[in-house]
Amino acid sequence: MKSSDGVLLEAKNIVMKFGGLKALDGVDVEASKGEILGLIGPNGSGKTTFFNVVTGIYRPTEGRVFFKGNDIGRESEQEIARRGIIRTFQNSRLWLELSVLDNVLLGMFLREKPGILPVIFNYRAIVKDFSEKAEECLEVLSIFDPELSANCYRRARDLSLVDRRRVEICRAVVANPQLLLLDEPS
């Protein structure tokens, strides 16, 4: 399928079954560049399940998911993230022993391919790049919440649930997503 101009995500007839339970039943969603969409429904209506299908955590029982015209329904979570689909989760997934800054910095690497060889052979460039990325993270934190930026070396475990959520959203933003999925952001 070729992408229509500006269409980022197209989910067609998504069905997701868990045993006898049909969590999603023929869901169709289209999201275009620059568009803000909201999925609303009561607890258990399938919002998170839909995000899990789009991001490769679940494989749909039926239906297809396209991103920029490419079928991503069988790609791994990592491949989908590298394409630019980044998400947050209902429950915070921060590294509690790491600092606010370290947790946000992890977002900078969500779309990169892992590998030790570039680190070994380009150590100075990696250190410089890391410093630049830390500055970008601090900038995003300061725009989002100046107090979090000022306390960027605090451990995530010492944050309120609201601040943990903010850190997770900042981490998603610094990943430079083409499509950002926020699961219960408030």
Structural summary, described in words:
The protein is of the alpha+beta class. It has 2 domains: 7-83, 3-Layer(aba) Sandwich (Rossmann fold), CATH 3.40.50; 100-177, no CATH class. The protein is 38% helix and 20% strand. It is built from 7 helices and 6 strands. It has helices at 47-54, 77-83, 100-108, 117-121, 123-144, 146-150, 161-174, and strands at residues 7-18, 21-32, 62-67, 70-71, 85-87, 179-181. The protein has a 4-stranded antiparallel β-sheet, covered by helices on one side. Strands 5-6 form a two-stranded parallel ribbon. Strand 3 and strand 4 (70-71) form a beta hairpin. Helix 5 (123-144) packs across helix 7 (161-174). The longest helix has 22 residues, at 123-144. 25% of the residues are buried. The mean pLDDT is 90.
List keywords for this structure.
186 residues, Rossmann fold, two-stranded parallel ribbon, 38% helix
Detail the poorly predicted runs: none
Strand content: 15-25%
Largest sheet: 4 strands, antiparallel
Radius of gyration: 18 Å
Number of helices: 7
Q: Which outline best applies?
A: globular
Secondary-structure class:
alpha+beta
Order of helices and strands: EEHEEHEHHHHHE
Short description:
This protein has 186 residues and is an alpha+beta fold.
Write the topology of this structure.
Layout: E1 7-18, E2 21-32, H1 47-54, E3 62-67, E4 70-71, H2 77-83, E5 85-87, H3 100-108, H4 117-121, H5 123-144, H6 146-150, H7 161-174, E6 179-181
